[in-house]
Amino acid sequence: MSQDKTPATAPSATPELTVPGRRRFLNSAAVAGLGAGLAACNSGSQSAAPAGAASGAAPAASGGSGHAGTSSQPGLHPKPGELDTYYGLWSGGHTGDVRVLGMPSGREILRIPCFVPDALVGWGITNESKKVMGTKADGSLRYTVGDTHHVHASYKDGDYDGRYAFVNDKINSRIARIRLDYFVCDKITEIPNIQGFHGIFPDKRDPVDEKINYTTRVFAGAEFHLPLPNDGKGMDKPETYRALFTCIDVETMNVRWQALIDGNCDLVATSYDGKLAASNQYNTEGGAHFAEMMSAERDACVFFHIARIEQAVKDGKFKTYGDSKVPVVDCTRKSNEDPKTALAAYVSVPKNPHGVNASPDGKYFICSGKLSPTATVIELAKVLDWFDGKLDKIDKAIVAEVELGLGPLHTAFDGRGNAFTTLFLDSQVVKWNVDAAIKFHGGDKTAKYVVDRLDVHYQPGHLNASGSETAKADGKWLAVGCKFSKDRFLPVGPLHPENEQIVDISGEKMILTGDHPVRGEPHDFIIFKRELLRPKQVYSLDDFPNAIKDPKDGGITRNGKKVTVKMTTQAPAYSLPEFTVKKGDEVTLIITNLDKVEDLTHGFAIPKFNVNFIVNPQETASVTFVVDKPGVYWCYCTHFCHALHLEMRSRMFVEA
Amino acid sequence: MSQDKTPATAPSATPELTVPGRRRFLNSAAVAGLGAGLAACNSGSQSAAPAGAASGAAPAASGGSGHAGTSSQPGLHPKPGELDTYYGLWSGGHTGDVRVLGMPSGREILRIPCFVPDALVGWGITNESKKVMGTKADGSLRYTVGDTHHVHASYKDGDYDGRYAFVNDKINSRIARIRLDYFVCDKITEIPNIQGFHGIFPDKRDPVDEKINYTTRVFAGAEFHLPLPNDGKGMDKPETYRALFTCIDVETMNVRWQALIDGNCDLVATSYDGKLAASNQYNTEGGAHFAEMMSAERDACVFFHIARIEQAVKDGKFKTYGDSKVPVVDCTRKSNEDPKTALAAYVSVPKNPHGVNASPDGKYFICSGKLSPTATVIELAKVLDWFDGKLDKIDKAIVAEVELGLGPLHTAFDGRGNAFTTLFLDSQVVKWNVDAAIKFHGGDKTAKYVVDRLDVHYQPGHLNASGSETAKADGKWLAVGCKFSKDRFLPVGPLHPENEQIVDISGEKMILTGDHPVRGEPHDFIIFKRELLRPKQVYSLDDFPNAIKDPKDGGITRNGKKVTVKMTTQAPAYSLPEFTVKKGDEVTLIITNLDKVEDLTHGFAIPKFNVNFIVNPQETASVTFVVDKPGVYWCYCTHFCHALHLEMRSRMFVEA
């Protein structure tokens, strides 16, 4: 293979690729970059790909019953009335939400709006949701787009504790917290001085206080480097741009600290002992252009020593940038050469790695090569040894670097010593044994680390297994997020769904059990046993300071042009059958749903004023709007509630 | 039973119902109303309910494997790679969209944004979609909420022709047209002088010109009556309020005419010969309050004689209201007493009917009683006889009025003479034979019209069967939109999904084959064979006047503070790796996706400016925004496209 370092061809000159089948999605620019990556990898090699699977000849893409169909196991879809046994929390991509799926059925049960308005529930319409989302001075929403990628949940004793989930917004550098009792987003924080916030991960215990055996921090990695502060100066000097790694407190959702690094961040992993967090880095070059970002043969995984960083903050060893008051510690290479005082360490990883995942035994972080066909296994005890001055070179923490196939991205685990890695270019999942890989890397070329391969449809990004990111990984179900779904579902125009495939991993061989179309574009997800959650299905009136506990307490009050209308709902009627305001009034409408029955949600819509929202059982919600047109406006219930739902109405009279 | 006409108890005094099981969703107000309805029905009675099903004792609601589970037939879920055989088009309720499902799997393949912004595709963000949605003078969206209920498709020769689908917005009285080649909404019309626009239905051929054997009109029914015009005068005189029935041209999407009626409209049906349209009326009382709307024992189904109405418009026999130029013809009872000149006729139907459906043989419209346990079968030939002066009383067009069970709402057909009606209160689908019902009503009390009953979970609203609303009804699959899903899926907090149940109706007995959770709240849907559509998956550059066909034609042009940035995309790069604008500029960004490969969609996001949208293969889209902050803004691809997707970026420099 060629060692040619010529950058990929310029976009405008990219010829169309004519390779048939699944690889037609890739153009020659990628193949060129990939070639360079392959050439650079020679520390581990095991030709474990089955005939045809990882060779240039791709399986045929046409027809619904492709390669993977042959290993399918039908009949696992639940019968009517059968409950799923696992929850899945899926990020919603640029839908800006989090989705709750039942597993193994793959059925979507709920969407939790976070960063983007949601007309179904009135997210971004009610005053309560606008307060969570954030508004401008004029009361309108600060942001109306989002891009969620990674969803993770809070831990206790190495397993999910059912308190919170967290999800990132890449577009506007925000992190949202979701309460897992009511399945609602209750807090959103915008992180200063970063762009391209991609990976997040909660910590699993405190790095110092052993009694804190649960999540108190969540870490955030930023992909894009920026002038600091980003005020319009130094824009033409990308070599001076910097990226930051961020720590957020999970209770206050305030940013605790940030770390200035060399290169960029991508995904994030945390250790089970709470001492380490890490992020893979695909742009150690600090390149601003496509070709520059893939010029180096090796990039890195940067490790953060949390206790030392927080001591540095306590000791005042930090800077701040721009308007932000957040302390920023120095984690650049140059300032952290002495292991005994280093806040961070950079482990070398092949070409543009994607994904860093913690094994459930707590021993390893595994980085995938993306443009190298390898996975790199890093032993955490050795990383700590380096920080303690017991290991002379940080790269000696690498205990395996083995070939898996083309385009490795993310890794999941079955809790029985096996890892499952997506191969984006091969459109495969490869199952491999971590111990065998370490033996092979150590010189035992008889060690067969590849256990099985499964073709998926097509271009898998993230994958995850039940409990994979906990100490309780149970090796039952694997889901694979396939970015392309060509020919797998009925055609619906140019915009295709993605394909979340479900795989039974309980045996030696992987068995594909289901294809599930999903609206673009989920990225990451977690899957866990249903017993871990204890959801509440009816709110408590006492949780809402503005609740109207008795219909008699409702009515209209006026303060100048500000009018407050309070009413209650009980199927099939609103407590105010009509109410009168004047043109030009600013109306605040507060509604309490007095129905106590589970599932008995009401809606409230007013024509022509962009008012529609729902009120769940025993919930109170409010909306504020200006009435600028006279006339009769029939308010009505938009959420089915009762046989006389259509008759559930009120009238707003707007006097001229 | 009581003939007591006392209105239902006032909302604030409604006691909570303590009846266990499925009926706990209903309170005593409904039961009171229902009792009155039942009392009024005595023209047909056949106790066909199985033991326990329609009696006061409801089946137990707890537990996932309820009554319906016992008749389930597992294993019908498609294997991985198997395509569905039918499309389903589902309305999305207050999500404001239309959803495309594969049937019989029930898998959601696409959501088509219509009335509400959609952050995934950039609907409401791109200039192209804002033009379809409608904007205020300042360029912001006129409406951001919607409430879709009924989706129907265009016809040719009595079957769907794959051109268009149509869907209503109840909140803001809009109708959207969807192109079924690209599965996108291309036109939205706001209907004047109405509120509560609920039912829609396309015509199936022209009432006069036999050569026009396809859809050219779509009809719209308005539930809420209003002062005409609705300008703030006469608000306290609901007896003067009026509702309108509307006809829209499907090509121009302009409103052709409206009809002033007595009472209100609800659902709409059209005849196969194009001569008649009809709407059921649940508020012939013109009541403004809940109790008033259910005071009369019989309401109506109003029939419109299309040819006569259009002749009246031609003859100038119309009024206009307010600012609207739309001709409004007079279809009130008083003005249409002479059958020979009548534009409309009111057929009596029991108490607060819901739903009017055309049988596939073209002979009947069937109205459901809602608060009466009956379905009313109206023979269209007899309605035409009345208009021709051959039938002395319009109510003689009723050929059957038979008891089905509690809370009948909507009716579907299998093309073999059987009808399927949802019983909201009984949480059942009842299968009944139309000819047998007519015989029973005619006096043959041995005629057994009820064929089968199936318990569903719970409170079914709409149902529909494959091809049911066409002359090609094939009696294969039935879907039932159950409004409540308690205990059928994993708990996800207070907001429950609805449950679209799939039923095999190919045999004598109905067989429940699947439960599918759906995000609230779909109402109506149609199901048809996949062969009827011929979707396109790649756009044509020539369809976009502002397309950039060669990357060299891209770049930046300035006109004062207005800046136009043109670029192309080819995975994994944008043709402009950076571009510079000034603080205060109004930037219009035009992007053409030059990738030609199916499924290769790109996104374009800019942090902090609420810009994110997608560009499908060979599509051009644009966005306009003001840059009010200096700095570097990394633009990036939000829609997965390539192994180097993360590296697909550009930079916007905003100079201070």
TrEMBL record, chains A, B:
It catalyses: N2 + 2 Fe(III)-[cytochrome c] + H2O = nitrous oxide + 2 Fe(II)-[cytochrome c] + 2 H(+). The gene is nosZ. Residues 1-12 have a biased composition (Polar residues). Its main location: periplasm. This is Nitrous-oxide reductase. Homodimer. Nitrous-oxide reductase is part of a bacterial respiratory system which is activated under anaerobic conditions in the presence of nitrate or nitrous oxide. PROSITE patterns: COX2_CUA, TAT. Pathway: Nitrogen metabolism; nitrate reduction (denitrification); dinitrogen from nitrate: step 4/4.
